[in-house]
Amino acid sequence: MREDELASARPPRARARGGAQVQAPVATAAAARAHARAVAETGWDPATRPAHETDMIDLLLVVSELVTNALRHGGGLAGFEAVSGPDGIRLAVRDHSDEVPSGVCGPAPPPSGRATGGYGWPLVLRLAREVDIEKEPTGGKTIRVFMPVRTAGEPL
């Protein structure tokens, strides 16, 4: 994936004056969730082939955690991408930090005492599949995950 492809997010299109279609970059967790939901709806039409509700909740939770971590701990969000496939959604979140999340080789223990945070990354590791972290040659890193999505009615 090229850097310019990742840096330009593709959120749901909005109508501008005159009826032109425009896209704004994803800059918040809310915008990333809206984009991921729109991407999921291209593969799992709510009217004819709805996505399993549990899988959509997991998808949106992982999107929130990855984007929030990029904003809080990664020096800011440098790119967001969500791509629909036959069995799920592939996410790529890029930030400006070279630091790899702690507990990357497995779920980290929950924080003790009055520590803040520390639950998001273990949650991502638990819900996502094919978690991959790649340090970018120009600095920063990209975290890629696969989120399986079943059609409603498929067994858990």
What does this structure look like?
The chain contains four helices and six strands, in the order H-E-E-H-H-E-E-H-E-E. The protein is an alpha+beta fold and 156 residues long. The strands form two sheets. Strands 3-4-6-5 form a four-stranded antiparallel sheet. Strand 3 and strand 4 (88-95) form a beta hairpin. The two termini are 32 Å apart. Mean pLDDT is 80; it is low at 1-23.
Question: Keywords for this structure?
Answer:
single chain, 156 residues, alpha+beta, four-stranded antiparallel beta sheet, 4 helices, 31% helix, 22% strand
Please outline what is shown here.
The chain has helices at residues 3-7, 29-43, 53-73, 120-127, and strands at residues 14-15, 21-22, 77-84, 88-95, 129-135, 141-148. By secondary structure, it is of the alpha+beta class.
Radius of gyration: 16 Å
What is the count of DSSP helices, taking H or I runs of 4+ residues?
A: 4
Strand content: 15-25%
Which strand order spans the largest sheet, edge to edge or round the barrel?
Answer: 3-4-6-5
The end-to-end distance, rounded to whole angstroms, is 32 Å
- State the helical fraction: 25-40%
Average pLDDT across residues?
80
Overall body shape: elongated
Low-confidence stretches: 1-23
Q: Helix/strand/pairing class, anyone?
A: alpha+beta
| Number of β-strand runs | 6
Listing every helix as H and every strand as E from the N terminus to the C terminus, the arrangement reads HEEHHEEHEE
Largest sheet: 4 strands, antiparallel
